[in-house]
């Protein structure tokens, strides 16, 4: 594969077959950083490996363009859902010793979760579960991003691998006090609402403006649905609580009976 581009020089004043003379000449070599970014964009894992092997210090290759946010090679690959490129970069040490962060302090996993790239999220979550709880400059983590985007399968993967368990993770809030449930409700993501409540999210938790997730419902349908889910969860908790009390009562009676027989 050539390491340089080629161009056509058009000679002549009129653009016609008779008046155009075509001379093929090589341009100067494309910068390795640009070639690497192009390879990531085109999902060419083999080319990515070859370039990084040739230029090891270029593996992160932050994008310093106006809107690039200093996204690294893995940030770009994860945001595009290019699984094989992600695997290649991680294998080459992209995330050693700690995950790369962009200008917004987001990880590659955060961008993949926001975009709903299930396979990439699964790979990155398995590779480094601690990155699930990494917060960006607004205090949002990957679980909140998935909830906001309505990516239920991604959310379930994150809740499966998150350190400390799902129940604890769904209680987290950003700098404004918004939880994953607030984000799901405000965007009308019904499946995500059910998943979060099943994981133990608190529907009564309020943000800095004293708004609950129900108050943030995007539509009347979402509000009714969330209220129904909350009632269902509370009903199940009461049933489980009653069942626990019944079991405890039975245990106490059995102990009393054994003591009575022994006496």
TrEMBL record:
The lineage of its organism: Eukaryota, Fungi, Dikarya, Ascomycota, Pezizomycotina. This is Ankyrin. It comes from the Eukaryota.
């Amino acid at each position: 594969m050539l390491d340089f581009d080629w161009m056509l020089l058009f000679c002549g004043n009129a653009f016609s077959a008779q008046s155009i003379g075509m001379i093929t000449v090589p341009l100067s070599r494309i910068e390795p950083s640009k070639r690497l970014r192009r390879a990531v964009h085109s999902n060419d894992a083999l080319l990515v490996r070859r370039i990084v092997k040739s230029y090891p210090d270029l593996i992160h290759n932050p994008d310093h363009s106006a809107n690039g946010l200093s996204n690294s090679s893995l940030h770009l690959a994860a945001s595009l859902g290019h699984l094989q490129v992600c695997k290649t970069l991680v294998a080459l040490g992209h995330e050693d010793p700690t995950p790369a962060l962009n200008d917004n302090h987001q990880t590659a996993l955060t961008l993949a979760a926001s975009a709903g790239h299930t396979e990439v999220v699964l790979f990155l979550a398995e590779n480094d579960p601690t990155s699930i709880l990494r917060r960006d400059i607004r205090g949002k983590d990957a679980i909140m991003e998935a909830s906001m985007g309505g990516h239920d399968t991604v959310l379930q993967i994150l809740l499966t691998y998150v350190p400390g368990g799902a129940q604890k993770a769904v209680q987290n809030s950003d700098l404004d006090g918004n939880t994953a449930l607030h984000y799901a409700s405000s965007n009308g993501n019904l499946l995500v609402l059910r998943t979060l409540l099943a994981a133990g999210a608190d529907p009564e938790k309020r943000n800095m403006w004293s708004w609950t997730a129900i108050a943030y419902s995007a539509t009347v349908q979402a509000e009714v649905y969330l209220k129904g889910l909350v009632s269902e969860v509370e009903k199940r908790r009461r049933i489980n609580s009653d069942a626990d009390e019944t079991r405890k009562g039975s245990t106490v009676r059995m102990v009393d009976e054994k003591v009575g027989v022994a006496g």
